[in-house]
Design goal:
mainly beta, 2 helices, 22-stranded antiparallel beta barrel, five-stranded mixed β-sheet, about 800 residues
Length: about 800
């Protein structure tokens, strides 16, 4: 199914060594690199140095190399090189410390982790993420909607390690900060159109309008469409792995005075998608006695099956290859994520040394989920004339408001500071139903499609229905002191005090009021947490181009309750203390950039998920309990990133992350036994190499890019020792850019691109919970995609 680890590492190294004569690498590394702005010239004795990279990780614009935080940056050039259309495309491993995966097989909700802080199931109303996601400083509180099309992103900043001081709750693993391009007040237009395999096409239009008095305007629109990865053989139904993402944003900037700016933005996105197919990877891995499909009973000993029913002759077991056509046809329609939002940014500079900012934002999210992902490949498992094919139907609704005030300034030449207050309020609700859509005949040689009425909202038998509210208030400050007598030394001290209030109600369980200890009624939880998160950093400039630092910081993920629990079991916040030492350096006349970080994180009250799937008549129920693990979870790691400007035309880069995580053994609430648990979606070793070429070509510019990304096999679930597959993904793009047209006409660029160029096939999610009734089932990565793209810019 996949190459051995040794071979993969050899290929990864070989890509780096052979990239120079083969193809290339120009503007940006897969990780913290920014485009090299110097125009390509003829070969010279000394290539130009690498450009500075500007980041806003400390709430002010700073040079990446002078910022004592481990940060990776993926800029607009790198996003284009990899044909990144949504955050899910960054799951290829371009930033080794950043791990992105679907929740279950659904494209409508993303699991995002950094440094081993990976919430496996944060898509419930009372659950939280462990990595904060921000767009222009606005916090996005939910996993849902994160796969929406990206709207003109200038750069993606990956801040690693706890960001509890400046970014607050739910950033214990780090923060993912997306910075968009702003109105300029000068006319400019960029248009993009492309087509590819899998019936894919994409188009974008970005228009900067000329200033109208004190006002500047910008409009961005995008469409990104892909057909099915796996065909659905039921006529008239959508396939698996499809998406249709559309987004529109309007921005206006008002500058009535040199020291005041107001920017208002409004956006709307619609993400229609279907899940990846969950296919059976093996049959009867536990070696049970196989009985005919027509058997009406399955023998058990002490509640554990010793027999397993034979598969229907219609069911295919394919553990080595992605199925391009499902063996069972099922009702399936698009899940739809609708996201909308408005944000107002105000900036006032009363003096040259002080800026006062305000960020006001409102967002809402509506999700209708239709997820019939596996036919007869997962529970419920039944025999002759039995019902099967679990249709996971859910609604999810969220509304959030946030307000932040910041003061960013300096006191003389020795102190830089940032301080602020933050307010956040959120209401989230959901419901879910899991009817079966298909029914076997007597011997499993055929099936029928059941009455669709139970799948229609208003006629569903709900497994659960819940609502949660969150209100968070915080005050924070951070200051960096550079002594006048020792200007190479920088001491940063900061802290954030947070007041968190959460409450929730579980209204329905199995389509009725919950029952606990014989008492029937809605279940509630309430949580109030006050906490302080400090930060201390000591940095030292060894030279103008070499900096070292040591840092201590803390962060936390809020507690909550599991709406998949029969009792609405609540759990406490988890918190992390992190220690980090780092190096940032530009060497050899800034032609070589090498950054490194070594860290240790101690996490207490780790939130561990345990699930149990049970068959209830014609449907199934996935009961999930979240337990705070005892003791301390220890996460240790190393991160390396480098970039080499080999010539004026060629730049090479590489990055690597090592993560070692150990969670204390925890009691499984379903059987009362202490067992080993794990951290999901966190490979021990992950690396990426890339190369870019940029040179004159027949009056235009030749641009070529190739990257290769490797990750060890990782766990898909916290409660299971079994791992999914390792991965090795290569992406490439070749373009002829700066093609001139008539005088005053647009500059054109024509590009060929491919994601997963070598058509690598691997299971990124493997579920063994079905072993005694069928076998392991799992989800494969996307196949090779490729296409041609035309860009025009004025």
């Amino acid at each position: 199914m996949h190459r051995q680890t040794k071979l993969r590492l050899q290929l990864l190294l070989g890509t780096a060594l052979l990239a120079a004569p083969v193809s290339a690498f120009a503007q940006t590394a897969p990780v913290q690199t920014a485009p090299v702005q110097t125009a390509p010239t003829a070969a010279s004795a000394e290539p130009a140095g690498l450009d500075d990279i500007v980041v806003t990780a400390t709430k002010r614009e700073t040079n990446l190399q002078d910022t004592p935080i481990s940060i990776s940056v993926v800029n607009a050039e790198a996003l284009a090189d990899r044909h990144v259309q949504s955050l899910m495309d960054l799951a290829d491993g371009s930033v080794p410390s950043l791990r992105i995966a679907t929740f279950e097989a659904r494209q409508s909700a993303l699991t995002i982790g950094i440094r081993g802080i990976v919430p496996n199931d944060a898509n419930q109303p009372a659950r939280e993420q462990g990595v904060g996601v921000y767009v222009d400083g606005v916090y996005l509180a939910r996993q849902h909607g994160l796969a929406a099309a990206l709207l003109d992103i200038e750069r993606v900043e990956v801040l690693k390690g706890p960001q509890g001081t400046l970014f607050g709750r739910n950033t214990e693993g780090g923060a993912l900060s997306l910075v968009t391009k702003k109105p300029t007040g000068v006319f400019g237009m960029r248009a993009i159109a492309g087509v590819g395999n899998l019936e894919s096409y994409n188009s974008e239009l970005h228009v900067d309008f000329p200033a109208l008095g004190d006002f500047a305007f910008k409009v961005d629109g995008i469409i990104s469409v892909q057909g099915p990865v796996t065909e659905n053989i039921l006529p008239g139904q959508t396939g698996f792995g499809e998406y249709d993402r559309r987004g529109l944003r309007f921005q206006t900037r008002w500058t009535p005075a040199e020291n005041f700016t107001a920017t208002l933005a409004a956006d709307i996105s619609k993400d229609k998608n279907t899940p990846f197919y969950s296919q059976l990877l093996n049959f009867n891995p536990n070696g049970l006695t196989v009985v005919p499909f027509t058997s009406t009973t399955i023998r058990s000993v002490n509640g554990t099956p010793v027999e397993i029913r034979a598969l229907s002759p219609l069911v295919q077991v394919e553990g080595s290859n992605r199925m391009t056509q499902a063996d069972i046809g099922v009702p399936q329609q698009f899940s739809v994520d609708d996201t909308r939002g408005m944000d107002l940014h105000l900036s006032y500079r009363p003096t040259d040394s002080l800026e006062i900012r305000s960020i006001t934002a409102y967002r809402d999210l509506d999700v209708e989920q239709y997820d019939n992902i596996a036919g007869a490949h997962r529970p419920p498992v039944v025999g002759p004339n039995g019902r099967f094919s679990r249709y996971s139907l859910a609604g999810f609704w969220q509304h959030q408001f946030s307000q932040e005030l910041q003061a960013v300034g300096s006191l003389g030449d020795s102190i830089d500071y940032v301080g602020g207050v933050f307010y956040f309020k959120e209401t989230v609700s959901d419901d879910a139903a899991t009817p079966s859509t298909n029914q076997w005949n007597a011997d499993g040689t055929g099936y029928t499609i059941l009455d669709p009425t139970p799948t229609i909202r208003g006629f569903r038998s709900l497994d659960r229905k819940s609502t949660a509210h969150s209100e968070s208030k915080a005050v924070y400050g951070q200051a960096t002191w550079t002594p006048a007598s020792m200007d190479a030394l920088h001491l940063t001290v900061g802290g954030r005090y947070t007041w968190d209030d959460k409450d929730g109600v579980l209204e329905l369980v199995n389509n009725a009021l919950p029952v606990v200890n014989g008492v029937q009624g809605v279940l509630r939880f309430n949580s109030k947490v006050d906490r302080f998160d400090p930060l201390v950093t000591l940095a030292y400039d060894v030279s103008n181009n070499i900096n070292v630092y040591g840092k201590y910081s803390t962060g936390y993920r809020a507690g909550g309750a599991s709406s998949r629990s029969l009792t609405y079991r609540s759990f406490d916040p988890e918190e992390v203390k992190a220690y980090e030492i780092g190096l940032k350096s530009d060497l050899f006349d800034r032609r070589v950039r090498f950054n490194a970080a070594v860290y240790a994180m101690d996490r207490t009250d780790s939130q561990i998920d345990f699930s149990l799937v049970t068959v209830q008549g014609a449907s199934t129920r996935n009961t999930l309990e979240t337990i705070n693990a005892p003791g301390t979870t220890k996460i240790r790691g190393v991160e390396l990133e480098g970039q080499f400007r080999a010539t004026d035309n060629l730049t090479l880069s590489a990055s690597y992350a090592y993560t070692d995580a150990k969670v204390p053994d925890t009691v499984n609430p379903f059987n009362g036994q202490v067992q080993q648990v794990f951290i999901a979606y966190t490979p021990e070793n992950a690396g990426s190499v890339a190369a870019d070429w940029n040179s004159p070509f027949m009056g235009a510019t030749l641009k070529a890019h190739i990257d290769a990304n490797y990750a060890d096999a990782a766990h898909s679930f916290e409660q299971f020792a079994i791992k999914a597959d390792s991965s090795f993904v290569v992406n490439a793009r070749v373009a002829i850019a700066d093609i001139t047209t008539r005088d005053g006409g647009p500059l054109l660029e024509v590009a060929l691109w491919s994601r997963n160029l070598l058509d690598e096939t691997y299971v990124y999610r493997r579920d063994p919970s079905n072993r005694n009734t069928l076998g392991d089932y799992g989800n494969f990565n996307n196949p090779r995609t490729f296409g041609i793209e035309l860009r025009a810019s004025y």
